[in-house]
């Protein structure tokens, strides 16, 4: 399943069968080319619609931003659990009442809860900044994601082939 | 809010006020050190609990993996919309019945729907692999996430200060 984004049709026999097997079978890629190619195609990248003025990278960064807040809450909770059970209880109680899906909303709400919660929120914001800048392994993230897509694609195809071979042999 | 993960207490006067204002005020960091530091602290990284045998990077990679499937579906749908309305309709109809939250489950279900859907699933899997390997801008993701955490922290604090200044001035 590894292929370049600009791979021509002729190199994809598996995905694009040469001989359609039914009237409803269709090629997934057109033979003729568009006369006016979008900008993303001109620079050899696939056109990704539906992100408005943002980009997929910006959307992924927003997801990661919320994830870093979640990680920061975990880090701060673990620190407090050992050394400050009172603050730990307050954090857990606040977590029970507020969703962590939107990290910024969570911090904004915590800021306004009480002066003690404000200090907790400041600590979480400080930790998410330090974590994202110093601790998070960006190269590892890329390596794991590339590995995951290759392994998942192979696994999905293998499972399907094994399943259909099994059905065939039972007939 | 920019600080190192190993910043000493003395450099954080804002987060750790020197003079507690009430009986319930508490320091968020202990003065004494643990005698047995976890491995992550030994290598100057903050200890992140709750990820079991996985890591935050693996969890983030799994999120991104599902995101790449979502992007691949968008790319394939946009391609089909212009050139193969019949396949486009089938994809949209399938999307209405199946969640894209788990990309692998989505592809596995599509594989088993019909032989035409199988080809669609193969196309989506091929596109997510190519997108993640060639098109996705990993450096840009990191740049945007770092920018987002700094800007969000500044914005949250500014909003709070402006809000409380406003309340104070009204008294």
UniProtKB/TrEMBL annotation, chains A, B:
GO biological process, one term: photosynthesis
Pfam families: RbcX
GO molecular-function term, one example from the UniProt record: protein folding chaperone
The organism of origin for this protein: Vigna angularis var. angularis
Coiled coil: none
Keyword Chaperone in annotation: yes
Keywords on record: Carbon dioxide fixation, Chaperone, Photosynthesis
Full protein name: Chaperonin-like RBCX protein 1, chloroplastic
Domain of life: Eukaryota
């Amino acid at each position: 399943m590894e292929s370049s984004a600009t791979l021509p049709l002729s190199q994809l026999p598996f995905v694009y069968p040469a001989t359609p097997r039914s009237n409803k079978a269709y090629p997934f890629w057109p033979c003729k080319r568009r006369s006016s190619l979008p900008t993303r195609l001109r620079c050899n990248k696939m056109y990704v619609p539906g992100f408005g003025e943002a980009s997929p990278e910006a959307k992924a960064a927003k997801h990661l931003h919320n994830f870093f807040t979640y990680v920061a809450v975990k880090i701060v909770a673990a620190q407090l659990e050992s050394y400050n059970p009172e603050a730990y209880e307050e954090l857990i109680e606040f977590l029970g009442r507020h969703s962590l899906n939107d990290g910024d909303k969570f911090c904004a709400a915590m800021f306004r809860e009480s002066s003690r919660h404000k200090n907790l929120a400041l600590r979480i914001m400080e930790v998410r900044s330090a974590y994202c800048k110093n601790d998070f392994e960006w190269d590892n993230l890329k390596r794991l994601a590339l590995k995951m897509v290759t392994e998942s694609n192979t696994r999905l195809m293998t499972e399907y082939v094994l399943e259909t071979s099994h059905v065939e042999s039972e007939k």
